[in-house]
Amino acid sequence: MRDFGSGSHLKAIGIMVLFLAGGILGGRQAVAHPPEDRPNILLILADDLGYHDVSYYGTPDIRTPHLDRLVSSGMRLDRFYANSPVCSPTRAALMSGQYQDYVGVPGLIRTNPDNSWGYLDPEATLLPEVLSQHGYHTGLVGKWNLGLRSPNKPNERGFDHFHGWLDDMVEDFWEHRREGINYMRLNEGEIDPEGHATDLLTGWAVEYIEEQAGSEAPFFLFLSHLAPHFPVQPPQEWLQKVKAREPDISEKRAKLVAFIEHLDEGIGKVVAALKEHGLYENTMIIFTSDNGGHLPSEANNGPLRDGKQSMYEGGLRVPAGVSWPGHISPDTHSKKVMLTMDVFPTVLEAAGISYDGPLSGTSFLPTLLGEEQPLHEGEPLFFTRREGNMRYGGLTIQAVRLDNWKLIHNSPFGPRELYNLATDPREQHNVIEQHPQKARELNALLMKHIQKGGAVPWQRPAD
């Protein structure tokens, strides 16, 4: 395997962006493609998938052949980071190409307003809005988690088609409720389908692909799975298969492995639909997770410290890969640091769309194409999360990374910690006392970021 990187609708109304023929994305000029050459985009986001809960990293107790095949057909991204260790903020960064606090989503958006810590800025331009402006049909199948009410429902934020779940999680993968409320929708209409949520989303994604197969317009499909987020509820036959294969596995781990393997099969069916309808060769497929794995569910984050909800590496670094036949060489991998917010400009550059709106992310398309790219070198990268309850008190936790240095504030009421990831990738040796000047430098950068994010409202205005 070659290593590239270890060296070097709202329709026209109200979209506050400027489209220029010679515009740039992350310092790189976009090349306009004729409509027939524009790729379809399939963006697959797993929910709480641990960094090593895929078999392509050699994890012995799990089998994910479809994800393995997807990643090996293109480039594996070994240092891909979620913008936040929890759902909504990462999704806000993904959809906007900006730091989540710059678009009003520093924390989770929830059903209960007393425990909701974000409100997506209605003026923020989202990826589906830009793609729709340039002739793409845009679809969301699965979890949204960026707004339960107008003006922030999916069909109001650029998606032509929405078939999925509005809220942060389902409390049962067969019953599909959250605090007694049914958030399952087909566009604006409430639906109440029967079946396991993973199977439903897989089927709806395949249906969307079948519907788009006869269209001359390219499509953008955001397949946003609910699994493997807890409650960990695999179909019984999948659980029994894992137990038979892994006789020494714990009950809890067996359930999670079966849950992920069931998800993997569904992803395989979606990719197979692309191939069946002759769409695969002109489709860029991006796969990743919204945050690290959930340790109480016995997720495997590899050698990384901690997991979901944490600013340590296990909460932020996630599995990722990109496939695009004829453009990205197969069996390649990159150790460049990339973030969720980088997907937005990457997709636009691949589609030949120039964009001059606000961006925090940088297109990593050059890296995907095997070109040298100084991606995020010398640039501070910020990770934030706001949360309530007694543990967080409505305050924030955060981290800043500058090259190999990382300053962490993992509790609002705890001390800061400093790590050199080049010599201590597992974050075992806090060196803040040995390098106080570096800590002050990083803290000053972090304070400026928090001030900028603090200028953006993150609570829904009073009705």
Topology, please?
Layout: E1 2-3, E2 24-25, E3 28-29, E4 40-46, H1 65-72, E5 75-81, H2 87-96, H3 127-133, E6 137-143, E7 161-165, E8 184-186, E9 189-190, H4 197-212, E10 219-224, H5 236-245, H6 251-276, E11 283-289, H7 313-316, E12 317-318, E13 320-323, E14 332-339, H8 343-350, H9 365-368, E15 380-386, H10 389-392, E16 396-402, E17 405-409, E18 417-420, H11 436-454
Parallel strand pairs: 1-14, 4-10, 4-11, 5-14, 6-7, 6-10
Antiparallel strand pairs: 2-3, 5-12, 5-13, 7-8, 8-9, 11-13, 15-16, 16-17, 17-18
Notes on the structure:
This protein has about 475 residues and is α/β, with parallel strands linked by helices. It folds into 2 domains: about 25-370, Alkaline Phosphatase, subunit A (3-Layer(aba) Sandwich); about 380-455, Arylsulfatase, C-terminal domain, CATH 3.30.1120.10. The chain contains 11 helices and 18 strands. The strands form 3 sheets. Strands 1, 4, 5, 6, 7, 8, 9, 10, 11, 12, 13 and 14 form a 12-stranded mixed β-sheet that branches. Strands 15-16-17-18 form a 4-stranded antiparallel β-sheet, with helices on one face. The protein has a two-stranded antiparallel sheet with strand order 2-3. A hairpin with a 2-residue loop joins strand 2 (about 25) and strand 3. The longest helix has 26 residues, at about 250-275. It is globular and about 60 Å long. Residues about 5-25 have low confidence and may be disordered.
